[in-house]
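User: Can you predict the 3D structure for this chain?
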Amino acid sequence: MGIKGKNDKMVVLACEDCKERNYTTTKNKKNIKDRMELSKYCPKCKKHTTHKETK
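Assistant: Here is the predicted structure, written as C-alpha cells:
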C-alpha cells in the first residue's frame, strides 16, 4: 500500500489501555498538526478503546 500524496505520512496507532500497536493509517501533515486519536477495536483488550498516534 503506497502513500497517497507528498504531504501524507504513515502513522502507527497504539491502544491507550494495553499500549499495543494495532493499526497503521495515513495522515495529511499539512492539515492535521496534532497527534491523531481514534476509537478502534483492540483485539488484545477485546473492546473498543482510544488509539493514539505513536512516534
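The chain is about 0% helix and 55% strand. The two ends are 20 Å apart (CA to CA).
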